[in-house]
Amino acid sequence: MNEIASSGLLGTTTALRLSVRDLRVSFTDDAGSDVVDEVSFDVAAGEVLGLVGESGSGKTTVALALLGHARRGLTITSGRVLIDGRDLLSVSSRELRILRGSKVAYVPQDPGSALNPTLRVGTQLEEAMKAHPGAVADIESRIDELFEQVHLPTHTGILQRYPHQLSGGQQQRVMLAMAFSCRPGLIVMDEPTTGLDVTTQRHVLDTVRNLCSTYGVAAVYVSHDLAVVSELVSSVAIMYSGRIVELGRTERVFGEPVHPYTRGLLAAVPSPDRSEVLKGIEGQPPRPGHRPKGCNFAPRCQMRVAQCVEAPPLVSVSLRDVRCWRAGETASLGTVASEAIPVRDVSGATILDVANLSANYGRNEVLHNISFRVPADSCVAVVGESGSGKTTLARTIVGLHSNSTGNIEFGGATLASGMKHRTKEELRRIQYIFQSPYNSLNPRKTVGQIISQPLEHFFDFTRAERDDRISAALRDASLSDEFIYRHPHELSGGERQRVAIARALVVDPELLVCDEITSALDVSVQAAIVELLRRLQSERQLAMIFITHNLALVRSIAQSVVVLAEGTVVESGLVEDVLERPQHAYTMRLMADIPKTLAIRS
How far is CA 368 from the centre of its chain? Predict the structure, then answer.
């Protein structure tokens, strides 16, 4: 393969569990157009390899190919996937079914969709082991052993519950137990911590690390979260446009990145320790199957040269493999530079004052006497674990949840509980941006129609005035007028979220409530959205409530922070005070659980 494999940087050959060679996955109806090509790497027993890259880079396609599977419309056209020396791509369909689960197991991104909602958890675990006779001698004892290892005690009755009765973290631990149940040699994990709060994420990562070490299992961990990957994996493969562009030991790749794409990704990672400007990578990655000629990354690269019209080979530089013509020069650049965000004064007049707010679902009180203030032209972050009440708080403030008591004062006037009791002007001045742009945008309407809808509701504009407003809102959201006639399914996740922001901006709000709007975005797109919001906050004198479970993001967007635990404010204050000198044990634990990337920025 290359010097890295032979020198053992990706695992010693004596304990090699997984060896991938020249993997290629193409479109079924066009074998000449590939989605993944020239992918090779090794993983030793007990080690974890991270597959990192933006959406569309080919990570999941490679992950599924490790199980001998390709999604509809794709075909594995060449290459080898050797697990303990056996090539999964050369066995029969019957043999492959036996090997899946016993030799190679898969942990999906969304356990809620992967688990059968009609079967109890215990039944599904038993089925997984019974599907491979002889793999487990005593199923009951094996379940007890697995649940102890994933920290789900059986005495709590979890085995008798249905998946919907478990939290997201519990569901993911059940999936891990199921994947390790038959003691496979390889575990493939596809974004298993996406959407989880930092504490649950920490528990899942620790579980993965301990299980791989205990059973000597090789693992491939697919993720777009570089901070998570840096704490778990021993080696990392950076993918772009279906090819590996940098491959080596994690501490080297993240600590001293060589490829411009790797450097761009690291510059977009928020720091939990410093307030830094996040730098997204300009442009869009090519669509699968539409790889540009020459260097794939050249159209977005700030370091491109004339030679980039030719495809660079994979070469060994600074103890890692890099696909870049300028690898020798970039190897000497060292760490990724960062720019500090100037401290802003947040002592201005209060625009939103929440006092003694409580909220109920039926008779169950989920928010308890919440009080905090949002100064004009500032951003207040609301953080906490899943189930802490963050989204309920946001919905109550904007009037989507009306079963509440207490006082919400906006602009000096008390807001009624519930949208139907508020004036049209009050509704216009507070706008809500939902977590999922895939669900919040009408798929049957064009972008222009989506943005026009609130204008038609709040204003009596002429058609020309509406068109001008729509264009201005799109420009503010860093989108061109070309998007007006597109439908949501034609847009990337980041573009959809920008449309959702434009829809909120078009009515000139004074307060934006952003509910986990970056949780499912690539790190580069996340950086671009956060910097967009920071710019809009300054230009439009906007106040914002930014709800997130990603505490590292808080320093790059907010001036104040409110920490929620079980529906109660346990700590609040300036970001620097709360994150650097937390007083409550809950806040201390959240800070300790934040994954920290190995890259050191200066």
Answer: 30
Quick: pLDDT tens for 25-83: 999 887 678 999 999 999 999 999 999 998 889 999 999 999 999 989 999 999 999 99
Cα 353 to Cα 373: distance, rounded to the nearest angstrom:
5
CATH topology agreement for domains 3-103+184-330 and 350-593: yes
Mean pLDDT score across all residues of the chain? 89
pLDDT in tens, 351-360: 999 999 999 9
356: three-class secondary structure by DSSP: strand
3-state secondary structure (DSSP) of residue 390 = helix
User: Could you tell me the two tokens for 335?
Assistant: 């760490």
Rounded CA gap, 495 and 334, in Å? Answer: 32
DSSP state of 338: -
Please list, in sequence order, all residues whose beta carbon lies within 8 angstroms of the beta carbon of residue 341, skipping any fewer than 6 positions away: 275, 276, 277, 534, 555, 556
Residue 601 in tokens: 């920025």
Q: What's residue 195's pLDDT? A: 67
Calculate the dihedral angle through the C-alpha atoms of 209, 214, 220, 221, rounding to the nearest 10 degrees. -20
> What is the rounded CA–CA span in Å between residue 183 and residue 502?
50
3-class DSSP state of 449 = helix
- The pLDDT of residue 296: 92
Strands 30-44 and 16-27 come out as antiparallel
Please report, for residues 83, 348, 352, 367, the alpha-carbon distance to residue 356 in angstroms, rounded to integers and kept in the order given: 59, 22, 13, 10
Amino acid at 231: E
Strands 379-383 and 430-433: unpaired
CATH number of 3-103+184-330: 3.40.50.300
Q: Concatenate the DSSP letters of all residues of 276-318 into one string.
A: B---PPSS-PPPTT-PPSS-TTGGG-TT--GGGGSPPP-EEET
Residue with tokens 């019974």: 130
**Distance (Å, whole) CA 523 – CA 537:** 21
Helices (H), 181-259: 198-215, 226-232, 250-255
Question: What are the domain boundaries of the chain?
Answer: 3-103+184-330, 118-174, 350-593
pTM (2 d.p.): 0.84
Which residues in the chain land under pLDDT 50?
1-14, 600
CB 221 within 8 A of CB 232: yes
pLDDT value of residue 208? 86
Per-residue confidence (pLDDT) for residue 508, from 0 to 100: 94
Cα angle, residue 38 at apex, residues 36 and 43 outer, rounded to 5°: 95
Query: Do residues 131 and 99 make contact, with C-beta atoms less than 8 angstroms apart?
Result: no
CATH number of 350-593: 3.40.50.300
Q: Using an 8 Å Cβ cutoff, are 89 and 80 in contact?
A: yes
CB 430 within 8 A of CB 505: no
Strand 186-190 versus strand 235-240 pairing type: unpaired
Count Cβ atoms below 10 Å from residue 372 Cβ, excluding itself.
20
**Looking only at Cα atoms, what is the longest distance across the chain?**
75
